Amino acid sequence: MPSRWWGRIGAGGAALVVGLLIAGVEVGRGREWTDADWGRYGGETYTFVAPGDAPPDQVRTVIGQMETYTPTTGDTFYDIGRYFDLGYNEIVAANPDSDVWIPAQDGKDIQIPREWVLPCCNFDGLIVNIPEMRVYYYPKRAKGAPRTVITYPVGLGRTDWKTPTGKFKITEKTKDPTWVIPESIRQERIADKGFSEKSIPGGSPDNPMGRYRMRVSLDIYSFHGTNIPWGVGMFVSHGCIRFYPEDIERLFPTVPTGTPGEFIYQTVKVGTRNDRIFVEVHEDIYSMQPGRWRTTINELQKRGLLDRVDEEKLHQAVYESRGIPVDVTRETLPPSTNEAGGPGIHPLPATQLDADDSYPSRNRPATGG
Hints:
Layout: H1 10-23, E1 46-48, E2 62-64, E3 67-69, H2 77-83, H3 88-94, E4 110-112, E5 115-117, E6 125-129, E7 134-138, E8 147-153, E9 156-157, E10 166-175, E11 179-180, H4 183-193, E12 199-200, E13 212-216, E14 222-224, E15 235-237, E16 241-242, H5 245-251, E17 260-264, E18 268-273, E19 276-281, H6 292-302, H7 311-320, E20 326-327, E21 337-338, E22 342-343
Parallel strand pairs: 6-17, 9-15, 14-16
Antiparallel strand pairs: 1-8, 2-5, 3-4, 6-7, 7-8, 10-13, 10-17, 11-12, 13-14, 18-19, 19-20, 21-22
Helix pairs in contact: 2-3
C-alpha cells in the first residue's frame, strides 16, 4: 500500500491492512491499486421498460450483466469491488466461498455482480434500497424517450444509527462542505477517539463527507462522498448515504435541487427481461422484513408470475440469498395447483425454515464502523 495512505485510511483501511497481514500477504507486493484505477466502471446509463408501459412480455426491469474476473496476487475484495463499482457487501454475497483477503489463492474466477433487478415500483428520482445498499437514479426523460436509470453502491447507517425509510427531496447541494458535527456524534467521537472538534472544514482529508454533499429533506441526512472508500457496502455511517468519491463526483452535477426520492426497504426484488422471470434476494440487514420465502411468494403473486416459476430454482435462489438476479422461469407450465404456495409451488420442510419462515442465513453482509 502506498505510504501516502498511512494516516488517512481510517478504521476501514486499517482493517484491510491488518487482514492482509493476518492472511500472510505482504502489503505492497503483487498488484498495487492506484487512484487511476477507480472510476473505470460506474455511471453507465441503462434503458428499461416499466410495468404498464408495454405488454407484460415486453417489460424489462433487469439491467446490466454478470461478469467474471480472475484475481491476482495483491487483490482483495475491497479493491475488486471498488474497481467494478460494487459495494463490499455485493461482491462478498456473490462469492460466498472465496477468501475476501486473498481470493487469488483459490485459483478460480470470481463473479462480478454487475446485474440488478430494479426495485418496485417507483421510477422517479433517487431510490435507495437499503438492504442491497444501492442507489438507483432515474433522471427526468423527454417526451417519447425511453426510461433510463443509473445505479451506484453506497455505505449506510450502522445498526444503532439506521438509515430511515421514507420519501424526500434534495434540498441543497454543496461542494467541499464543512461538517458541523451534531452534538450526539461529537460526544461519541470524544468517548471513542478523544476527538472534540465541533466542525471539520471542507476539503480536509479528515472530513467524512468528502468533496460533495446533497442534503435531503429528511432530518439531518445527506448523500455525500467519503474519506474512507472501503466503507461503501458496509454499515459505517450515522445514517447518511456514502458514495465512492468518483461516484458522487459523477452524480452530483446531474441531480437538480428539488429532485424527489425515497428510501425503501426491499429484501426481495422481482423483475423480467426477454419474458424471463428473475428474483433477487438480499439479507434482512436491519431485521425489518422477516420471512424471505413469504415475501418472495407475495411479490410473485402481485405480479401474476407465480404460475411461471420453477419451484426448485426459486427455493435455491431464496436459500442462497446471494443478492444477484436469478432466472427462476419454469420451462413448461405446471399441470396443477396446490393451496400452500400457489400453482406448482410447494412449501419447504419445516426443518429447512427459520421460525419466521425465512431461510437460514448463509451470507451476512460485512459490518463496519
